[in-house]
Amino acid sequence: MACYICDKHQAGDGVIAADDLMVLGHVLPDLADGPVYLGHLVVEPRRHVQGLADLTPDEAAALGRWAAAAAHALQAEHVYSSIVGHRIDHLHLHLVPRYPGTPRDYWWPRLDEWPAAPRGGNAEVTQLVAQIRARLDAPGHDR
Ligand SMILES: [Zn+2]
């Protein structure tokens, strides 16, 4: 059965970093049908599983490590995280940074409704992915 996330892993689209168990990526402008909120990352198990309850202990540990490392690399004022899963039945943990200066009225869950929120298309996402990858690779960054 076709799965958007399994296909994405296969193609390598939006991938920032990965290991045997998890893939860290940035949401793609094509799925969102236009510019996306910059820094909206997803941590996804390589294995096609639906929910947290389906993870092995090693996958669960890896999910936590990747989420923490990604949140650190985002260098945001705060990082929100959530698992929703209404559209795609392959587990994915959303990580959404709140940037300094975001008005209180637009804090979670309205971050991307802020007219001045940083958004971008493929070029901006590619640039940010490179920055985040460099921060993840910086010395002293365990994951
Ligand atoms: Zn899948």
Structural features, described:
With 143 residues, the chain is of the alpha+beta class. The protein has one domain: HIT-like (HIT family, subunit A, 2-Layer Sandwich). 32% of the residues lie in helices and 20% in strands. It has four helices and seven strands, in the order αββαββαβββα. The strands form two sheets. The protein has a five-stranded antiparallel β-sheet, with helices on one face. The protein has a two-stranded antiparallel ribbon with strand order 3-7. Helix 3 packs across helix 4. The longest helix has 18 residues. The structure holds zinc ion (ZN).
* Top CATH class: Alpha Beta
CATH homologous group name: HIT-like
Strand content: 15-25%
Indicate the CATH topology: HIT family, subunit A
CATH architecture field: 2-Layer Sandwich
Give me the oligomer status: single chain
Domain count: the total is: 1
Heterogens: zinc ion
SSE ordering? HEEHEEHEEEH
Major beta sheet, strand line-up? 1-2-4-6-5
Contiguous uncertain segments of 5+ residues: none
Task: Let me know the average pLDDT.
Answer: 93
Class by SSE composition: alpha+beta
Helix percentage range: 25-40%
Through-space gap between termini: 32 Å
Q: Radius of gyration in whole Å, from Cα?
A: 15 Å
Motif (Histidine triad motif): 90-94
Pfam family, one: HIT
Organism: Actinophytocola algeriensis
Keywords: Hydrolase
